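Researcher: Next entry in the queue.
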Amino acid sequence: MPNRFWVAAAFLFVCIGVSDGQGPAWVPDNSDWWSLLRENNYLGSVSPSETQAAATNFRIADVSLGEPLETIEKRFGMAHEIQRGDASTGRSQICYVSPSGDIHLIFEEGEVDFLAYLFRGGPQWSGSDSCVVSTSLTSRLATASGLRLGMSKKQVTEILGKPNARSNDKLIYDFKFQKRTAAEQLAQMRQSSPRMSEEEFHRNYDYYTVSQYIEARFVRDRLTYLALSTAETY
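Model: Structure for this entry, 234 residues:
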């Protein structure tokens, strides 16, 4: 299991932040209409598949969800951080906008969730003026699996398969499965839990749960909003 899991909660309030020496900006509202974490209820709305989606669906322009800020900035430019919510709805966000001003790419982190949003258009929100213009953000930007804005529902399903739920303007994919903890990681965890019995330790930590979620929204059968989410929990 990636080491970043262990610092997710702390990372939420610290080092995703601004690289220009300024502190993160706190925005006390839920005007970020595109965020799945606003009410923290997007998971559980459908029955998840007990299978694994390809990792390429969660990688955009050589950046995978959960990558360090430095990796994101190398690809898209220096970032500014916005923080909102608290507890289960607490979220940190960095935003990029295309030179044309109509396409946004946002990386978001919650308590255990890593998310990315790619969308065209939509209303303004508090903090949207902190989005950084990136020449790397164009209409051709796509996930490693080929998902990009402007695709039809048919093209999206050719990549992702049958959705867990669908409506006239939305496709939802939800996956949940277990993975075995790597031996090296398990040994580190065992050292930090010396009082736990062997039986209890292995029952709790031999495996962890991975949740994957993809939401695609359409206008006149063209993809205008793509949300990607991954989470890892014990």
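Model: The chain has five helices and twelve strands.
Researcher: Noted, moving on.
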